[in-house]
Each structure stands twice: as C-alpha cells, then as structure tokens.
Design goal:
With 220 residues, the chain is an alpha/beta fold. Helices cover 27% and strands 26% of the residues.
C-alpha cells in the first residue's frame, strides 16, 4: 500500500471510510483531554473530515495533514470556506478560519510544523495503515510531537483473516506495544459494533469492536 493507492481512491471517490456526521466518540470523550479552547489539534490523514469543523467550534485551531489535494480542497468547498493556498517544498498549505490542512506526505511532517500542537485526534489514520506502516507512522508521530501531547485514538479490532483492510484490525495489545515506550495509555471505552455495521457483516466479519483510547505522551 503506497501513496498512489490513496490518491487513486480519492480520484475515484471510493471513500467509504469518510463519515458524513461528527464522530460520536469525539463528542463524548473530547472533554477528557481538558484542553484550553485555544489549544492546537493535529488531525493526521484527515481527508475531508467534518470532525475538524467540530474541533474548530470548540475554539481549537486545527492542523490537518492529508495526502490528496482533492480531499483537502473538498473539505473547504463543502464547508463554504475560501482557503488561502500556498506551497512550499514539502506541502501545499490550505487555510481558512483557524483550520489549516497540509497537503502532502505525512512522513514529511516536522517538529516545526507541530510545535504548537497540544493534542492529536486520530480516528482514521492508524487503522488505515498495514502493520509495517503503522509502526513507522507511530514512530514518526512521536518524533514530531511536543512532549506531553495527548492523543485521542479511535481504533477497531476484528479477526484480520476474515477481511482485508483497510480499515485494518488494531487491537489494544498492539496499541500498547506501539506506544508503551512513549505514552501512558487509558482505555476510555469499548463497544461491540458489529450489529450496527451490516457492510462489515456482509464482508464476513464475526466480531467487530471499537475502542476509544487516551494516550498521554512523555519525553523519552
């Protein structure tokens, strides 16, 4: 799975992963982070997520990172925001009303880009990546985040042999293994959601659970 895979999916509008409503776990659990309204929030692999608008409505400035320019432009268009666009060697910047999307490769993100970030919201990044890329993603994320950043992570688990991802199964044990050297982990909630997801039942899943996890990073 490479960048061309995701670029092609956006070009074909094969975006079943996109949620048309604000994520209910974000609404329910965001206050557990106890952030000041002015805090900056990073949304990796953001697509055109409406969750960024909700975060902005809470007072946060929002920094999204997205590979596809189609997705980034669609976000601003669909929310009637006229973006100020600029380009550098690593990213195309689109920004309006306290929301900025860096369009380009997530692995080009630097400490300078995230210097003001206090929290990360990850609903669709970790579960979008196969195992080898998940470790690379977490390692890079932890390298560029300031110390003591909080991460609200939504992940899911199912018997991986029953379905080819994405979304991929990411168990609690795997999250712990990926983050244990640099973060304190708290499981906020666990849900059995197979009955609410008939499309996954049609793909042959016998079990589907979603987890809401709070991670608090610390300095190495």
């Amino acid at each position: 799975m490479d960048n061309a895979y995701w670029l092609n999916r956006w070009e074909r509008q094969d975006i079943g992963f996109h949620q048309t409503e604000i994520n209910p776990y974000l609404r329910e659990f965001w206050q557990r982070l106890q952030l000041s309204p002015a805090s900056a929030v990073l949304v990796p692999l953001c697509g055109k997520s409406r969750d960024m608008v909700w975060l902005r409505q809470q007072g946060h400035t929002v920094l999204g990172v997205e590979l596809s320019i189609i997705a980034a432009q669609a976000f601003f268009t669909e929310h009637a925001l006229v973006s100020l666009d600029s380009a550098c060697d690593r990213f195309t910047h689109l920004a309006a009303d306290g929301i900025q999307v860096l369009c380009g490769d997530f692995f080009a993100l630097s400490r300078e880009d995230t210097a003001a970030v206090s929290a990360v919201y990850d609903r669709a990044a970790l579960v979008a990546l196969p195992p080898d890329m998940r470790r690379r993603y977490v390692n890079h994320l932890l390298q560029v985040l300031p110390p003591h950043t909080q991460i609200l992570l939504v992940t899911l688990d199912y018997p991986q042999h029953e379905m080819t991802g994405p979304p991929f199964a990411v168990s609690l044990d795997e999250v712990a293994a990926l983050y244990r050297s640099r973060a304190e982990m708290t499981v906020l909630s666990q849900y059995d959601v197979l009955a609410q997801n008939p499309r996954f039942q049609e793909r042959g899943l016998s079990r589907l659970e979603e987890y809401v996890i709070l991670l608090k990073t610390f300095a190495p």
